[in-house]
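User: Please predict structures.

Assistant: First:
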Amino acid sequence: MSASLAASETTPKAAAHTTGPSPAVMATYARQDLVFERGEGAWLVTPEGERYLDFASGIAVNVLGHAHPSLIAALTEQAHKLWHTSNLYRVAGQERLAERLVAATFADRVFFCNSGAEACEAAIKAARRYQYVSGHPERWRIITFEGAFHGRTLATIAAGGNSRYLEGFGPPVEGFDQVPFGDIAATEAAIGPETAAIFIEPVQGEGGVNVAPKEFLRDLRALCDKHGLLLMLDEVQCGMGRTGKLFAHEWAGITPDLMAVAKGIGGGFPLGALLATEEAAKGLVAGTHGSTFGGNPLAMAVGNAVLDAVLEPGFLDQVRQRTLRLKQALAAVKDQLPDHVEEVRGEGLLTGLKLKVPVPEVVKAAIGEKLLVAGASGNVVRMLPPLNITDEEIVDATERLARALERVPVPT
Protein backbone atom coordinates (compact mmCIF):
# COMPACT_ATOMS: atom_id res chain seq x y z
CA MET A 1 0.00 0.00 0.00
CA SER A 2 1.37 3.43 -0.93
CA ALA A 3 2.09 5.98 1.77
CA SER A 4 -0.40 8.44 0.26
CA LEU A 5 -3.15 5.82 0.21
CA ALA A 6 -2.40 4.79 3.78
CA ALA A 7 -2.52 8.40 4.86
CA SER A 8 -5.82 8.94 3.12
CA GLU A 9 -7.30 6.04 5.05
CA THR A 10 -6.15 7.31 8.44
CA THR A 11 -6.30 11.09 8.12
CA PRO A 12 -9.70 12.53 9.09
CA LYS A 13 -11.52 14.39 6.29
CA ALA A 14 -12.04 18.11 6.64
CA ALA A 15 -15.42 19.25 7.91
CA ALA A 16 -18.04 19.77 5.24
CA HIS A 17 -18.37 23.33 3.93
CA THR A 18 -21.52 25.27 4.75
CA THR A 19 -21.87 27.86 1.98
CA GLY A 20 -21.40 27.96 -1.79
CA PRO A 21 -20.93 25.04 -4.20
CA SER A 22 -19.43 21.95 -2.61
CA PRO A 23 -15.91 21.05 -3.78
CA ALA A 24 -16.85 17.41 -3.24
CA VAL A 25 -18.97 17.49 -6.42
CA MET A 26 -16.90 17.02 -9.57
CA ALA A 27 -16.86 20.24 -11.59
CA THR A 28 -18.14 18.83 -14.88
CA TYR A 29 -20.89 21.46 -15.10
CA ALA A 30 -20.77 25.25 -15.00
CA ARG A 31 -23.65 25.27 -12.53
CA GLN A 32 -25.62 28.35 -11.60
CA ASP A 33 -25.35 29.12 -7.90
CA LEU A 34 -28.96 28.14 -7.24
CA VAL A 35 -30.41 25.41 -5.04
CA PHE A 36 -34.06 24.38 -5.24
CA GLU A 37 -35.91 22.68 -2.42
CA ARG A 38 -39.19 21.82 -4.07
CA GLY A 39 -41.24 22.27 -7.22
CA GLU A 40 -44.85 22.97 -8.05
CA GLY A 41 -45.91 22.58 -11.68
CA ALA A 42 -43.86 25.06 -13.74
CA TRP A 43 -42.29 26.61 -10.63
CA LEU A 44 -39.19 25.85 -8.58
CA VAL A 45 -38.78 27.12 -5.03
CA THR A 46 -35.53 27.81 -3.17
CA PRO A 47 -34.99 27.04 0.53
CA GLU A 48 -35.56 30.77 1.14
CA GLY A 49 -38.96 30.61 -0.56
CA GLU A 50 -38.05 32.42 -3.79
CA ARG A 51 -40.09 31.17 -6.76
CA TYR A 52 -38.60 30.69 -10.24
CA LEU A 53 -40.60 30.08 -13.39
CA ASP A 54 -39.01 27.02 -14.97
CA PHE A 55 -38.78 27.21 -18.77
CA ALA A 56 -35.89 24.74 -18.90
CA SER A 57 -37.78 21.77 -17.43
CA GLY A 58 -34.61 19.91 -16.52
CA ILE A 59 -33.60 20.26 -20.20
CA ALA A 60 -36.89 19.06 -21.70
CA VAL A 61 -37.35 16.36 -19.05
CA ASN A 62 -40.19 17.47 -16.76
CA VAL A 63 -42.96 17.24 -19.35
CA LEU A 64 -45.65 17.38 -16.67
CA GLY A 65 -43.85 19.92 -14.51
CA HIS A 66 -42.66 19.38 -10.95
CA ALA A 67 -44.38 17.21 -8.32
CA HIS A 68 -47.19 16.13 -10.62
CA PRO A 69 -49.75 14.28 -8.46
CA SER A 70 -50.10 11.32 -10.83
CA LEU A 71 -46.35 10.74 -10.99
CA ILE A 72 -46.00 11.05 -7.22
CA ALA A 73 -48.80 8.53 -6.73
CA ALA A 74 -47.35 6.05 -9.23
CA LEU A 75 -43.84 6.25 -7.79
CA THR A 76 -45.00 6.07 -4.18
CA GLU A 77 -47.26 3.09 -4.79
CA GLN A 78 -44.48 1.20 -6.58
CA ALA A 79 -41.88 2.16 -3.97
CA HIS A 80 -43.94 0.36 -1.34
CA LYS A 81 -43.95 -2.81 -3.46
CA LEU A 82 -40.71 -3.44 -5.37
CA TRP A 83 -37.74 -1.38 -6.54
CA HIS A 84 -35.41 -3.69 -8.39
CA THR A 85 -35.10 -7.28 -9.53
CA SER A 86 -32.85 -6.90 -12.64
CA ASN A 87 -33.63 -8.20 -16.09
CA LEU A 88 -32.93 -11.77 -15.05
CA TYR A 89 -36.69 -11.92 -14.55
CA ARG A 90 -39.79 -10.54 -16.22
CA VAL A 91 -40.91 -7.08 -15.10
CA ALA A 92 -44.65 -6.58 -15.39
CA GLY A 93 -44.52 -2.79 -15.70
CA GLN A 94 -41.86 -3.09 -18.39
CA GLU A 95 -44.04 -5.37 -20.48
CA ARG A 96 -47.00 -3.03 -20.09
CA LEU A 97 -45.06 0.10 -21.09
CA ALA A 98 -43.43 -1.68 -24.03
CA GLU A 99 -46.80 -2.89 -25.31
CA ARG A 100 -48.26 0.62 -25.02
CA LEU A 101 -45.32 2.22 -26.85
CA VAL A 102 -45.59 -0.40 -29.59
CA ALA A 103 -49.32 0.29 -29.93
CA ALA A 104 -48.72 4.07 -30.18
CA THR A 105 -45.74 4.08 -32.56
CA PHE A 106 -44.02 2.40 -35.52
CA ALA A 107 -42.15 0.02 -33.20
CA ASP A 108 -42.49 -3.71 -32.62
CA ARG A 109 -39.84 -4.05 -29.90
CA VAL A 110 -38.60 -1.87 -27.02
CA PHE A 111 -35.37 -2.02 -25.00
CA PHE A 112 -35.32 -0.03 -21.75
CA CYS A 113 -32.32 1.75 -20.28
CA ASN A 114 -31.69 4.79 -18.05
CA SER A 115 -30.70 7.75 -20.23
CA GLY A 116 -30.57 9.25 -23.69
CA ALA A 117 -26.91 8.40 -24.16
CA GLU A 118 -27.64 4.76 -23.36
CA ALA A 119 -30.58 4.75 -25.78
CA CYS A 120 -28.34 6.17 -28.52
CA GLU A 121 -25.62 3.62 -27.75
CA ALA A 122 -28.23 0.87 -28.05
CA ALA A 123 -29.32 2.29 -31.41
CA ILE A 124 -25.74 2.34 -32.69
CA LYS A 125 -25.20 -1.25 -31.61
CA ALA A 126 -28.54 -2.36 -33.06
CA ALA A 127 -27.76 -0.82 -36.47
CA ARG A 128 -24.34 -2.46 -36.71
CA ARG A 129 -25.61 -5.77 -35.41
CA TYR A 130 -28.51 -5.69 -37.89
CA GLN A 131 -26.17 -5.43 -40.84
CA TYR A 132 -23.96 -8.16 -39.37
CA VAL A 133 -26.76 -10.71 -39.01
CA SER A 134 -28.12 -9.70 -42.42
CA GLY A 135 -24.91 -10.88 -44.04
CA HIS A 136 -23.21 -7.49 -44.34
CA PRO A 137 -20.57 -7.35 -41.59
CA GLU A 138 -18.67 -4.78 -43.67
CA ARG A 139 -21.51 -2.31 -43.07
CA TRP A 140 -20.79 -0.64 -39.75
CA ARG A 141 -20.37 3.08 -40.41
CA ILE A 142 -23.14 5.55 -39.58
CA ILE A 143 -23.83 8.92 -41.21
CA THR A 144 -24.49 11.71 -38.69
CA PHE A 145 -24.99 15.46 -38.97
CA GLU A 146 -23.19 18.63 -38.01
CA GLY A 147 -24.65 20.18 -34.87
CA ALA A 148 -25.78 16.81 -33.52
CA PHE A 149 -25.74 15.86 -29.86
CA HIS A 150 -26.30 12.20 -29.00
CA GLY A 151 -24.81 11.96 -25.50
CA ARG A 152 -21.53 11.96 -23.57
CA THR A 153 -20.22 8.39 -23.98
CA LEU A 154 -17.18 7.80 -26.15
CA ALA A 155 -19.32 6.53 -29.03
CA THR A 156 -21.98 9.23 -28.81
CA ILE A 157 -19.50 12.14 -28.67
CA ALA A 158 -17.89 10.67 -31.78
CA ALA A 159 -21.32 10.50 -33.41
CA GLY A 160 -21.96 14.13 -32.49
CA GLY A 161 -18.56 15.24 -33.76
CA ASN A 162 -18.30 18.35 -31.57
CA SER A 163 -14.60 19.07 -31.11
CA ARG A 164 -15.20 20.58 -27.64
CA TYR A 165 -16.55 17.26 -26.38
CA LEU A 166 -13.95 15.14 -28.17
CA GLU A 167 -10.84 16.99 -27.01
CA GLY A 168 -8.60 15.11 -24.62
CA PHE A 169 -10.24 11.69 -24.82
CA GLY A 170 -7.89 10.09 -27.29
CA PRO A 171 -8.73 9.08 -30.86
CA PRO A 172 -12.47 9.38 -31.53
CA VAL A 173 -14.42 6.15 -31.82
CA GLU A 174 -14.37 5.11 -35.47
CA GLY A 175 -17.38 4.63 -37.66
CA PHE A 176 -19.12 8.00 -38.02
CA ASP A 177 -19.26 10.13 -41.16
CA GLN A 178 -20.61 13.62 -40.55
CA VAL A 179 -22.35 15.77 -43.15
CA PRO A 180 -24.11 19.18 -43.09
CA PHE A 181 -27.56 19.17 -41.47
CA GLY A 182 -30.30 19.31 -44.09
CA ASP A 183 -28.01 18.61 -47.09
CA ILE A 184 -29.44 15.60 -48.92
CA ALA A 185 -26.82 15.67 -51.69
CA ALA A 186 -23.98 15.53 -49.17
CA THR A 187 -25.76 12.76 -47.32
CA GLU A 188 -26.11 10.60 -50.43
CA ALA A 189 -22.51 11.30 -51.42
CA ALA A 190 -21.36 10.02 -48.00
CA ILE A 191 -23.01 6.61 -48.50
CA GLY A 192 -20.45 3.92 -49.24
CA PRO A 193 -20.08 0.16 -49.10
CA GLU A 194 -19.45 0.32 -45.33
CA THR A 195 -22.49 2.48 -44.50
CA ALA A 196 -24.99 0.82 -42.16
CA ALA A 197 -27.39 3.62 -41.19
CA ILE A 198 -28.24 7.32 -41.05
CA PHE A 199 -28.70 8.87 -37.59
CA ILE A 200 -30.47 12.20 -37.07
CA GLU A 201 -32.38 14.33 -34.56
CA PRO A 202 -35.59 15.62 -36.20
CA VAL A 203 -35.01 18.73 -34.08
CA GLN A 204 -31.50 19.44 -32.84
CA GLY A 205 -31.84 20.74 -29.30
CA GLU A 206 -28.30 21.21 -28.01
CA GLY A 207 -27.19 22.08 -31.53
CA GLY A 208 -29.27 25.26 -31.60
CA VAL A 209 -32.91 24.22 -32.04
CA ASN A 210 -32.46 23.37 -35.71
CA VAL A 211 -35.55 21.79 -37.26
CA ALA A 212 -35.01 19.24 -40.01
CA PRO A 213 -37.27 20.11 -42.97
CA LYS A 214 -40.04 17.56 -43.44
CA GLU A 215 -38.97 16.92 -47.04
CA PHE A 216 -35.41 16.25 -45.87
CA LEU A 217 -36.62 13.58 -43.45
CA ARG A 218 -38.71 12.02 -46.25
CA ASP A 219 -35.66 12.05 -48.52
CA LEU A 220 -33.58 10.34 -45.81
CA ARG A 221 -36.20 7.62 -45.52
CA ALA A 222 -36.08 7.13 -49.30
CA LEU A 223 -32.26 7.03 -49.28
CA CYS A 224 -32.25 4.35 -46.60
CA ASP A 225 -34.77 2.27 -48.52
CA LYS A 226 -32.79 2.66 -51.73
CA HIS A 227 -29.44 1.64 -50.22
CA GLY A 228 -30.53 -0.93 -47.64
CA LEU A 229 -29.70 1.30 -44.66
CA LEU A 230 -31.47 1.79 -41.36
CA LEU A 231 -32.96 5.18 -40.51
CA MET A 232 -32.14 5.97 -36.87
CA LEU A 233 -33.80 8.85 -35.05
CA ASP A 234 -32.69 10.52 -31.83
CA GLU A 235 -35.88 11.85 -30.23
CA VAL A 236 -34.41 12.10 -26.76
CA GLN A 237 -35.19 15.82 -26.56
CA CYS A 238 -37.91 16.33 -29.17
CA GLY A 239 -40.02 13.25 -28.37
CA MET A 240 -42.84 12.47 -25.91
CA GLY A 241 -45.17 15.21 -27.05
CA ARG A 242 -42.73 18.11 -27.03
CA THR A 243 -43.48 19.11 -30.64
CA GLY A 244 -47.24 18.57 -30.41
CA LYS A 245 -47.08 15.04 -31.80
CA LEU A 246 -46.13 12.04 -29.68
CA PHE A 247 -42.86 11.99 -31.66
CA ALA A 248 -41.48 14.71 -33.91
CA HIS A 249 -40.97 12.52 -37.00
CA GLU A 250 -44.74 12.12 -37.25
CA TRP A 251 -44.96 15.65 -38.69
CA ALA A 252 -43.06 14.39 -41.77
CA GLY A 253 -45.24 11.31 -42.15
CA ILE A 254 -42.29 8.90 -41.99
CA THR A 255 -41.35 5.94 -39.83
CA PRO A 256 -37.82 5.14 -38.67
CA ASP A 257 -36.28 1.73 -38.12
CA LEU A 258 -34.72 2.64 -34.77
CA MET A 259 -35.49 5.49 -32.37
CA ALA A 260 -33.74 6.56 -29.17
CA VAL A 261 -36.04 8.05 -26.52
CA ALA A 262 -35.40 9.41 -23.01
CA LYS A 263 -35.86 12.67 -21.06
CA GLY A 264 -39.63 13.28 -21.20
CA ILE A 265 -40.55 9.60 -21.19
CA GLY A 266 -39.71 9.46 -17.47
CA GLY A 267 -41.06 12.88 -16.52
CA GLY A 268 -38.02 13.44 -14.27
CA PHE A 269 -37.22 9.83 -13.36
CA PRO A 270 -34.19 8.37 -15.18
CA LEU A 271 -35.60 6.39 -18.11
CA GLY A 272 -34.54 5.76 -21.69
CA ALA A 273 -35.66 3.41 -24.41
CA LEU A 274 -34.74 2.13 -27.84
CA LEU A 275 -37.75 1.55 -30.07
CA ALA A 276 -37.27 -0.70 -33.09
CA THR A 277 -39.09 -2.48 -35.86
CA GLU A 278 -39.07 -6.29 -35.79
CA GLU A 279 -36.53 -6.32 -38.63
CA ALA A 280 -34.18 -3.72 -37.13
CA ALA A 281 -34.24 -5.47 -33.75
CA LYS A 282 -33.33 -8.89 -35.07
CA GLY A 283 -29.64 -8.60 -34.20
CA LEU A 284 -30.17 -7.79 -30.52
CA VAL A 285 -30.68 -11.26 -29.10
CA ALA A 286 -29.90 -12.58 -25.61
CA GLY A 287 -26.37 -11.67 -24.59
CA THR A 288 -25.76 -8.94 -27.18
CA HIS A 289 -26.89 -6.00 -25.02
CA GLY A 290 -28.21 -5.29 -21.55
CA SER A 291 -28.76 -2.90 -18.66
CA THR A 292 -28.78 -3.70 -14.96
CA PHE A 293 -31.23 -0.97 -14.00
CA GLY A 294 -32.98 -0.53 -17.35
CA GLY A 295 -36.73 -1.05 -17.11
CA ASN A 296 -36.76 -1.37 -13.32
CA PRO A 297 -40.17 -1.31 -11.59
CA LEU A 298 -39.82 2.26 -10.30
CA ALA A 299 -39.01 3.68 -13.72
CA MET A 300 -41.77 1.68 -15.35
CA ALA A 301 -44.38 2.92 -12.91
CA VAL A 302 -43.47 6.53 -13.68
CA GLY A 303 -43.13 5.91 -17.43
CA ASN A 304 -46.61 4.42 -17.58
CA ALA A 305 -48.02 7.37 -15.64
CA VAL A 306 -46.35 9.85 -18.03
CA LEU A 307 -47.78 7.98 -21.01
CA ASP A 308 -51.23 8.03 -19.38
CA ALA A 309 -51.09 11.83 -19.34
CA VAL A 310 -49.55 12.41 -22.77
CA LEU A 311 -51.98 10.02 -24.48
CA GLU A 312 -55.01 11.52 -22.71
CA PRO A 313 -57.46 12.78 -25.39
CA GLY A 314 -56.83 16.45 -26.07
CA PHE A 315 -53.42 16.64 -24.37
CA LEU A 316 -51.38 16.99 -27.57
CA ASP A 317 -54.00 19.39 -28.98
CA GLN A 318 -53.32 21.54 -25.92
CA VAL A 319 -49.57 21.37 -26.56
CA ARG A 320 -50.14 22.65 -30.08
CA GLN A 321 -52.32 25.49 -28.78
CA ARG A 322 -49.69 26.45 -26.20
CA THR A 323 -47.05 26.33 -28.95
CA LEU A 324 -48.93 28.93 -30.96
CA ARG A 325 -49.31 31.13 -27.89
CA LEU A 326 -45.61 30.89 -27.03
CA LYS A 327 -44.44 31.62 -30.57
CA GLN A 328 -46.75 34.62 -30.81
CA ALA A 329 -45.41 35.95 -27.53
CA LEU A 330 -41.78 35.39 -28.57
CA ALA A 331 -42.42 37.04 -31.93
CA ALA A 332 -43.65 40.07 -30.00
CA VAL A 333 -40.44 40.04 -27.96
CA LYS A 334 -38.43 39.96 -31.19
CA ASP A 335 -40.41 42.91 -32.56
CA GLN A 336 -39.91 44.78 -29.30
CA LEU A 337 -36.17 44.07 -29.15
CA PRO A 338 -34.89 43.63 -32.73
CA ASP A 339 -31.34 44.53 -31.68
CA HIS A 340 -31.34 41.62 -29.25
CA VAL A 341 -33.28 38.88 -31.05
CA GLU A 342 -32.44 37.68 -34.55
CA GLU A 343 -34.86 34.80 -35.00
CA VAL A 344 -37.51 32.69 -33.28
CA ARG A 345 -37.20 29.02 -34.22
CA GLY A 346 -38.24 25.55 -33.14
CA GLU A 347 -41.05 23.02 -33.24
CA GLY A 348 -43.74 22.79 -30.59
CA LEU A 349 -42.56 23.62 -27.08
CA LEU A 350 -38.94 23.10 -28.09
CA THR A 351 -38.40 26.75 -28.93
CA GLY A 352 -35.22 28.74 -29.48
CA LEU A 353 -34.28 32.36 -29.88
CA LYS A 354 -31.22 33.11 -31.98
CA LEU A 355 -29.77 36.13 -30.22
CA LYS A 356 -27.55 39.05 -31.15
CA VAL A 357 -26.35 39.35 -27.54
CA PRO A 358 -24.38 36.73 -25.56
CA VAL A 359 -26.56 33.87 -24.37
CA PRO A 360 -24.72 33.37 -21.03
CA GLU A 361 -25.48 36.98 -20.12
CA VAL A 362 -29.15 36.52 -21.04
CA VAL A 363 -29.41 33.31 -18.98
CA LYS A 364 -27.92 35.17 -16.01
CA ALA A 365 -30.22 38.16 -16.52
CA ALA A 366 -33.21 35.81 -16.76
CA ILE A 367 -32.26 34.32 -13.40
CA GLY A 368 -32.38 37.86 -12.07
CA GLU A 369 -35.99 37.96 -13.29
CA LYS A 370 -36.68 34.59 -11.59
CA LEU A 371 -36.92 32.83 -14.98
CA LEU A 372 -34.99 29.68 -15.92
CA VAL A 373 -34.00 29.11 -19.56
CA ALA A 374 -31.31 26.97 -21.21
CA GLY A 375 -28.55 27.86 -23.64
CA ALA A 376 -27.71 26.02 -26.86
CA SER A 377 -25.11 26.16 -29.60
CA GLY A 378 -25.15 28.95 -32.16
CA ASN A 379 -25.92 31.67 -29.59
CA VAL A 380 -29.42 30.30 -29.07
CA VAL A 381 -31.42 30.34 -25.84
CA ARG A 382 -34.01 27.58 -25.43
CA MET A 383 -37.43 27.80 -23.82
CA LEU A 384 -38.61 24.31 -22.86
CA PRO A 385 -41.63 24.68 -20.58
CA PRO A 386 -43.63 21.75 -19.21
CA LEU A 387 -46.15 20.53 -21.77
CA ASN A 388 -49.00 21.42 -19.40
CA ILE A 389 -47.89 25.04 -19.11
CA THR A 390 -50.70 27.61 -18.89
CA ASP A 391 -51.31 30.64 -21.12
CA GLU A 392 -50.81 32.88 -18.09
CA GLU A 393 -47.42 31.35 -17.37
CA ILE A 394 -46.39 31.78 -21.01
CA VAL A 395 -47.23 35.48 -20.84
CA ASP A 396 -45.41 35.78 -17.51
CA ALA A 397 -42.30 34.02 -18.86
CA THR A 398 -42.02 36.07 -22.03
CA GLU A 399 -42.44 39.31 -20.08
CA ARG A 400 -39.62 38.22 -17.77
CA LEU A 401 -37.50 37.27 -20.79
CA ALA A 402 -38.05 40.68 -22.38
CA ARG A 403 -36.93 42.41 -19.18
CA ALA A 404 -33.88 40.14 -19.02
CA LEU A 405 -32.93 40.93 -22.62
CA GLU A 406 -33.26 44.66 -21.95
CA ARG A 407 -30.68 44.30 -19.17
CA VAL A 408 -28.05 42.95 -21.60
CA PRO A 409 -26.21 45.63 -23.61
CA VAL A 410 -26.17 45.26 -27.39
CA PRO A 411 -22.59 44.80 -28.67
CA THR A 412 -21.29 47.81 -30.57
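Second:
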Amino acid sequence: MDRKKAIPAAWSRRRTRHDPPDLDEAIAAAQGLTDQIESQVEVAAQLSGLPEEDVRRRVLMTQAQPGRSRPALARGRQTEVVVIKRRGLRTN
Protein backbone atom coordinates (compact mmCIF):
# COMPACT_ATOMS: atom_id res chain seq x y z
CA MET A 1 0.00 0.00 0.00
CA ASP A 2 2.96 2.34 0.43
CA ARG A 3 3.51 3.21 -3.19
CA LYS A 4 5.93 6.03 -3.68
CA LYS A 5 4.59 8.57 -6.10
CA ALA A 6 6.89 10.34 -8.51
CA ILE A 7 7.50 13.98 -7.74
CA PRO A 8 5.95 16.17 -10.43
CA ALA A 9 8.49 17.80 -12.74
CA ALA A 10 7.06 21.26 -12.02
CA TRP A 11 8.13 20.97 -8.39
CA SER A 12 11.80 20.77 -9.32
CA ARG A 13 11.53 24.17 -11.05
CA ARG A 14 10.11 25.95 -7.99
CA ARG A 15 12.34 28.54 -6.44
CA THR A 16 11.97 30.29 -3.12
CA ARG A 17 12.03 34.03 -3.49
CA HIS A 18 14.45 35.80 -1.17
CA ASP A 19 13.90 39.51 -0.63
CA PRO A 20 16.26 40.95 1.96
CA PRO A 21 14.74 43.72 4.08
CA ASP A 22 15.40 47.29 3.04
CA LEU A 23 17.65 49.35 5.26
CA ASP A 24 14.86 50.98 7.29
CA GLU A 25 13.31 47.59 8.07
CA ALA A 26 16.69 46.16 9.04
CA ILE A 27 17.39 49.11 11.34
CA ALA A 28 13.97 48.78 12.98
CA ALA A 29 14.62 45.10 13.59
CA ALA A 30 18.07 45.82 15.03
CA GLN A 31 16.66 48.51 17.32
CA GLY A 32 14.12 46.01 18.58
CA LEU A 33 16.90 43.60 19.48
CA THR A 34 19.37 45.87 21.23
CA ASP A 35 19.92 49.43 22.44
CA GLN A 36 23.66 49.44 21.68
CA ILE A 37 24.47 51.42 18.52
CA GLU A 38 27.34 49.23 17.33
CA SER A 39 25.26 46.09 17.75
CA GLN A 40 22.42 47.71 15.81
CA VAL A 41 24.82 48.59 13.00
CA GLU A 42 26.15 45.05 12.85
CA VAL A 43 22.73 43.40 12.88
CA ALA A 44 21.24 45.78 10.32
CA ALA A 45 24.23 45.34 8.00
CA GLN A 46 23.91 41.56 8.16
CA LEU A 47 20.17 41.65 7.54
CA SER A 48 20.29 44.07 4.62
CA GLY A 49 23.57 42.86 3.08
CA LEU A 50 25.01 46.39 2.98
CA PRO A 51 28.42 47.55 4.25
CA GLU A 52 28.56 48.58 7.90
CA GLU A 53 29.73 52.12 7.08
CA ASP A 54 26.58 52.86 5.05
CA VAL A 55 24.39 51.36 7.76
CA ARG A 56 26.23 53.21 10.56
CA ARG A 57 25.46 56.59 8.95
CA ARG A 58 21.77 55.78 8.66
CA VAL A 59 21.53 54.38 12.21
CA LEU A 60 23.19 57.51 13.62
CA MET A 61 20.83 59.73 11.60
CA THR A 62 17.87 57.77 12.94
CA GLN A 63 19.12 58.17 16.52
CA ALA A 64 19.76 61.91 16.05
CA GLN A 65 16.28 62.77 14.80
CA PRO A 66 14.37 64.39 17.67
CA GLY A 67 10.88 63.21 18.48
CA ARG A 68 11.08 60.18 16.26
CA SER A 69 10.58 56.94 18.06
CA ARG A 70 11.10 53.47 16.74
CA PRO A 71 8.84 52.63 13.83
CA ALA A 72 5.71 50.87 14.97
CA LEU A 73 3.99 48.12 13.07
CA ALA A 74 0.75 49.25 11.43
CA ARG A 75 -0.89 51.04 14.33
CA GLY A 76 -4.64 50.81 14.32
CA ARG A 77 -4.77 48.11 11.68
CA GLN A 78 -5.70 44.58 12.46
CA THR A 79 -3.48 41.89 11.09
CA GLU A 80 -4.89 39.29 8.79
CA VAL A 81 -5.14 35.81 10.25
CA VAL A 82 -4.29 32.92 7.96
CA VAL A 83 -5.13 29.37 8.98
CA ILE A 84 -3.50 26.48 7.16
CA LYS A 85 -4.92 23.02 7.61
CA ARG A 86 -3.27 19.85 6.50
CA ARG A 87 -5.47 17.44 4.66
CA GLY A 88 -5.10 13.74 5.11
CA LEU A 89 -4.28 11.37 2.30
CA ARG A 90 -7.14 10.36 0.09
CA THR A 91 -7.85 6.68 -0.16
CA ASN A 92 -9.61 5.33 -3.21
